[in-house]
Amino acid sequence: MEILRTPDECFAGLPDYPFSPHYVEVPGPGGERLRMHTVDEGPRGAPVVLMLHGEPTWSFLYRKMIPTIVAGGLRAVAPDQIGFGRSDKLADRTAYSYAGHVEWIQALLAALDLQDVTLVCQDWGGPIGLSALAAEPGRFSRVVAANTILPTVDPELTRGVLEWRTDALLDWILASQRMPRFSAGAIVAGVCRRPVAPEIVAGYDAPFPDERHLAAARQFPALIPITPGDPGALRNRATWRVLERFERPFLTAYSDGDPATRGWETIFQHRVPGARGQPHTTIANAGHFLQEDAGPELAQIVVCFVASS
User: Is the sign of the CA dihedral 245, 122, 138, 141 positive or negative?
Assistant: First the structure.
């Protein structure tokens, strides 16, 4: 298995990202040892806020939130999924699987022995993080779901709340495979509500100096479940079975400008017992990547939620 590692110089001088790198080792699909990067800021004995990114971002996405989380007396942990950021990258796209991404987050939880975790999850960070929670619910004290989904492709999950936009989803999957130049920064900027400066666009592109480093980013869309028998659909059904018994506090903090996930906050609110009576919120003037559009605002919501629950 060929393992790629983005050169350190690609990350030099990133704006608003002064954090020292931390690494743990996790098992690769063929028994290799992979280096997984995480930002780890704040007191080690404090409650943990685990912030998981999705497609096609990395921990750079949380740079606006980390200072507020730490100032709130919490420990901010923001890993890079394998294949993204400063984490190792597998050159073979077929080496990436939904189960593998979940297992890598579980390995991180074990390596750092994270307890009393508040999960903050967006985009693919939701299915991956919530599946890790389903495997080890005792590690998690609460959840903040932000612009994420957990599809099973079962009509009864979404009936009466939203129409599952298979056409739009298939358009994205196809586009992600065919676009001749895959720019993570351009994708992020394209679905934000507020302007994204060129140096920030470059920051999102930093981990991907060439096409070979983009295998995980190209593969993520192909892992989205679109038929009931897909591995992701099976995994998400199992995760829902746990979430439908999850009594610990569960907050939704979605933006007002993300058609890709609109309506899913209602599904979580209705189906997760811990979501009942929580101060669910909508963040105004923010798109899909609300951490980029409104990072400090979302971070303050997280700090207040931890303090109050």
Answer: negative
User: Residues with catalytic annotation?
Assistant: 123, 258, 288
Structure tokens at 232: 């992701």
Q: What pLDDT is recorded for position 166?
A: 60
Backbone torsions φ then ψ of 68, nearest 5 degrees: -70, -40
Can you list the domains of the chain with their CATH numbers?
Answer: 3-308 (3.40.50.1820)
The model's pLDDT over 71-116, given as tens digits with 9 standing for 90+, comes to 999 999 999 999 999 999 999 999 999 999 999 999 999 999 999 9
Q: What are the beta bridge partners of residue 260?
A: none
The pTM assigned to this predicted structure is: 0.96
Please give the Cα distance from 168 to 174 (Å, whole number).
10
Ramachandran angles phi, psi of 32, nearest 5°? -70, 165
Compute, in degrees rounded to 10, the torsion defined by CA atoms 187, 20, 127, 68.
-90
